[in-house]
Amino acid sequence: xxxxxxxxxxxxxxxxxxxxxxxxxxxxxxxxxxxxPPPDGSHALSLTKLGRAFDRAGIVxxxxxxxxxxxxxxxxxADDYSIPDFSVVDADFRDALVQKNCYAPNVFRLVVEVTSxxxxxxxxxxxxxxxxxxxxxxxxxDRKHDEVLLYRDPVGGKYPxxxxxxxxxxxxxxxxxGVTLDLCVDTLLDGD
Length: 192
Known about the structure:
This protein is of the alpha+beta class. The protein contains five helices and 14 strands. A six-stranded mixed beta sheet has the order 3-6-9-10-11-12, sandwiched between helices. Strand 1 and strand 2 form a beta hairpin. The radius of gyration is 17 Å and the shape is globular. About 35% of the residues are buried. The mean pLDDT is about 95.
């Protein structure tokens, strides 16, 4: 007896994986399905301390919010989306829902990724996708190479070469984010 099989779309496969792997981050980048395990303690602390820094800088008073782990709908391919670790978004970002808990890129002011086991996605496809989406500022705490990269002001769907920051330095948050703030590289990398 023959059994008919339904071939899953990439989007359907992503939904199945999300349900099957609680705590994992499932994304579609440039038509490729990626799965990231839950973050470690240092990764989580980096994001917590990042949120505190933006609170102290007055992000809400500036008309923005920061959020962790919300979807960013990408214009690269039909089903592409990412789930950044941390984002600064317009206060009314919820009005820009596209689908699958993902929001339009125009409400994102800053996207932050803290690298983990799939660090190459944060340094490759996400740089390209975020630039094409017009994300004004993309910050990568690159724990693999022990530095922080600041991409900003994409032109023609590409970021210029990143500014690189080493331990002991601070990263100035660009004015386009809406607050004046310097972020400690060591805290971004280690959560300390």
